[in-house]
Each structure stands twice: as C-alpha cells, then as structure tokens.
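A quick aside before the break. I want you to see a complete sequence-to-structure record at least once, exactly as it would be stored in a machine-readable document. Don't worry about memorizing anything.
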Amino acid sequence: MLGMLFNDKECRELDYVLRKELDEMLLDLSDQRLDQDIRSAIAKRYNTIFRMYARFAPSKELSKYARRTRVQAKP
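That is the input. The structure line, written in tokens, reads:
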C-alpha cells in the first residue's frame, strides 16, 4: 500500500485537478460520436479517478460525480 502526505494547499490543488478531470470525462462520456471502445476506456479511468476523489471529498460534492451504472446479467 502506498501513502502520501499533503498539506492543505496541495490537498485543495488535488481536489481541483480531480474535479476538473471528472468533469472532462463526464463530457466525453456523454459524446455519442465516440466509439464504444473509447467510451469504455474513459469509463474505467473515470471509476479510478472517482475512487481517488472519494477518499477526501465531502459526500455532497461526491454526489455530483456519481454515475449510474447498468448491471448486466452474465449469460
């Protein structure tokens, strides 16, 4: 397991960067012109960054970035 120590300013900067990245990926995921493979890769990256953001974001802020996922039954 890896850990990092941040001061208050660095924590705010990381918060800002992650929020902007999540916003950009949400915009890309809503673009129907993108190929399904690309959208799938963006969705995987979104989940990773969302989990990073969820570690220190307040729940009110976190709810803005929660995505609805479809559960598909395996045949």
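Two observations worth writing down. Residues 8-30 form the longest helix (23 residues). Residues 28 and 34 are 8 Å apart (CA to CA). We'll return to this after the break.
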